[in-house]
Known about the structure:
By secondary structure, the protein is mainly beta. It has two domains: 8-86 and 208-313, Jelly Rolls; 89-205, no CATH class. The protein is 6% helix and 27% strand. It has helices at 166-174, 176-180, 245-251, and strands spanning 8-14, 21-22, 30-40, 65-67, 77-85, 89-97, 122-124, 132-134, 144-154, 160-163, 203-205, 209-212, 221-222, 274-276, 280-287, 291-292, 310-313. The strands form six sheets. It has a four-stranded mixed β-sheet, with no helix packed on it. It has a four-stranded antiparallel β-sheet with strand order 6-9-10-11, with no helix packed on it. It has a three-stranded mixed β-sheet with strand order 5-15-17, with no helix packed on it. A hairpin with a 5-residue loop joins strand 9 and strand 10. The longest helix is centred in the middle third of the chain and has 9 residues, at 166-174. The two termini are 17 Å apart.
Amino acid sequence: xxxxxxxxxxxxxxxxxxxxxxxxxxxxxxxxxxxxxxxxxxxxxxxxxxxxxxxxxxxxxxxxxxxxxxxxxxxxxxxxxxxxxxxxxxxxxxxxxxxxxxxxxxxxxxxxxxxxxxxxxxxxxxxxxxxxxxxxxxxxxxxxxxxxxxxxxxxxxxxxxxxxxxxxxxxxxxxxxxxxxxxxxxxxxxxxxxxxxxxxxxxxxxxxxxxxxxxxxxxxxxxxxxxxxxxxxxxxxxxxxxxxxxxxxxxxxxxxxxxxxxxxxxxxxxxxxxxxxxxxxxxxxxxxxxxxxxxxxxxxxxxxxxxxxxxxxxxxxxxxxxxxxxxxxxx
Length: 331
């Protein structure tokens, strides 16, 4: 992506999200200066995107941000400065898959069991696990359901959570998008619609965390499942994103470079920024970055201007204390 000096900014706010993919075809939401700041509010992570059949992966992540001067193969070190929960409640549990609603992988190649449309547009009708319907034929189209599940509400200080009974879970489902605090541009169906409630009255501590933050791969990849097994589920898969292990190793971010002098683990694996289990607000410091996927916010009204920041600076590899060889290839 070519940018001019005018387009390179000290601070950007990102409020655009992907449909389950990470990769170069998405383009960059913006370019920040070396040492610049990024602010954004991210949608909830797991479950909502999983039950949204038009998504090509299991998460809804921010569009990537380019950093001035970053090159393929550069190391990425991140310090989390702050993070706040936006959602008032969320739902989760143990999953079951609905085989007729996907091909090889329920996170990736979703389809309508009725008309067979791949990644079908969908609408919401009512609440419960039958609420996600194919826009074309009206068939229930979500590839996931709950074996056991819960709906949990958070206190105003975001320190504790309490699981709800059936009546309260249903009440939350009826205003699921509001309770989940989905950003205006988020396209996922909120998992609160499913209103699971098998373990009511359970008290839990709330400890927000960042699911994944990372750099952009050299080919479009679904953003599921998680960073630890990122891409492995694509090997030999019989859908458009299937590939060989050799191809996967070439396009994953930490394999971008062939001639980098630095071979340490600081070359981050392909990743994405998503909060789990509820929408998060977070702030980052980035050293010697390539491209960032991530976001921040506050417990203020979703989508409002937020004070948190992400700072990016180029620095030597924190492990080897040197800069990688500038001769690199992304082929």
